[in-house]
Amino acid sequence: MRIRILFITALLIAFTGVLSAKEVWLSIGGTTAGGTFRTDARIFNPSTTKDIQIQAYYLPVGNVDNSAVQPLTPITVLKRQMVVYNDVVASLFHSSGLGAIRLKSDDDFVATQRIYAVAANGSLGQFVGGVDATSAKTKGVIIQLAAGSAFRTNVGAANPNATAATVTWHLYDKNNVVVGTPFVVTMPPYAVISPSGLAGYAVGSAGADLSDAWLSYSSDQPIVAYGSVIDNGTTDPTYIPASEDTGVAQSTTPSGKVFVVAEHGGTSTSSAIDITPAITSTSIKPDDVVTFQISARESTHGFRLLDPNGVILLDLTVAQDAAPIERTLTMSVQGTYVYYCTITTCSPGHLNMQGSFIVGKASQDPPGY
Fold it and tell me: What is the pTM of this model?
């Protein structure tokens, strides 16, 4: 009997330890070139009896797979104390740019941050509370957004999962009318979407009155999302976290598989056409329905897609920073598909902007570039 009691006690202790484990996301932060924008973070240990250790990860923006990112040497926070990390991306992670911060511990803790702009007479910023990973949402709504002469809004998101998340966004104008068509994006594991303007969250949003707008999203995995509204006159910012949207069903559209195509040009070594998630030999099967969402990051590009017989399936001009172009195809032909940029003056690395993927079995003689 005593052995049984000891065994049950051990199980309870282990189970309690699992329950107390915590993961918190600081959804966006960073240090820009020159240090104009910075992020200060604070981590608090509420325990009265023990010091705790926290693993910290810095996950860069770009909607890329961050699952290979390793944590720093664990941070120790003494009992009933707060640790201070001013300009946290530089001071703690010895990095720069924008990204999310992921914090994990076997014990309870509190984490917050403040994002601000440095000015000669002080600073102006916004408070960002840490989001417990268990509070990420498959259905969310972000309200009180605005874009126009008086205000502008940036919206961003983070995927706190080890699997990809497909997210469908719906943008609504000041009259509660849906704008354009839904924007669908696939977020790889632990991916972070950089904050960007409202117009990018609907396909065909030109001309819409977004002076008082809102966003709704549904996802097949829970995500963290937010809006940042900025006064164009004073640059005063306001952080708005997503709330639970109880009226939206979990996303099942678009049908089929979704791939995000992001073209970027730069030097001869950095120009590329990135497809997320990466298309492997098992990603697409013959007769699969596939949606491509195509955008250009650094300049205007062309995007042409050929089937294994050399038939042109897509032939688009993609303007820099414009809303993504969405096209849905049935991949009915088995073999090797080729894609490439058609604008030869897009960047010094234009000739690198090409690639291929296989549907079913590879073609012996795929169409050339």
Answer: 0.67
